[in-house]
Amino acid sequence: MVKNIFLLILCFFLWMNLVQATPVSTDLRLWLKADSFTGLSDGTYVSSWTDNSSYQHNASSSGSTMPRFYSTGLNGKAALYFDGSDDQMGIAGSLDYAFTEMTMFIVSQGTGAAISIAKDGTQTEQEYLFGWNTMYHHTSDGNYTYRSPHTSVSSPYIATGAMGASPYDLTYRVNGDTSTNGIGQSGSVNNMTAVSRNITIGRRTFYANREPFGGYISEILVYGHKLTTTEMNSVELYLAAKYNIEHVLPVPEASSLFLLFSGVFLVSFIQRIFRKG
User: Fold this and answer.
1) Which of 64, 86, 68, 89 is nearest to 78 (CA)?
2) Which of 39, 78, 112, 221 is the 20 to 30 Å CA partner of 157?
3) Domains of the chain: residue spans and CATH
């Protein structure tokens, strides 16, 4: 009986290791977490948000554009609240964001332009834009491709966008559910190029108050390449477990199955040791 209980506990921790995996660390260019704040009271205005990636590009704000911190803002977890009027946080232009493909994750609840990564000194050129219901691959103002989710979401959600250099290489997922909507287009579009980019959180651009975001943002991760499906699952499952958000897990790839069968083998091996003992 004791042996069986031990094995059940072991199986549980093996499963939790798969489901609550920490985020993929390779090429993680930006990692903002609202739970990294300490000692703040609810409603406190926030002037700086620490970047937990190795690149350490902290987001900043000042004056009336500062968002506010709430310890239980999103599903009982810490979040920053953007007022949908003019709140924003920015990261100055850097060649660390000169990637030609990328993957973004954002945990939020609200509407508007949640995060924009655009060519420094411009509003929409060479821009990766992530809003509540659409992701955009912007060549310049009026020239872009886009993809939206095929399901409507109003509760807290995990949005994932993977974009290649090509304007037609767009993958959009909400809570692990990959959009099957077609890619739309406006104007004439070109591939992304390696240019210095700035980042704006809470509205469209550094330089003007366009499409402000109204709602809560708890966590943002930006990678400088396209993650595999397995890697996206890993990050999403980490976020889903952390923020108590339901995730639609796709069919595991071979590497995930390998991990699962490795766990089964380990349990079987320990069983044999107990039997011999």
Assistant:
1) 68
2) 39
3) 22-243 (2.60.120)
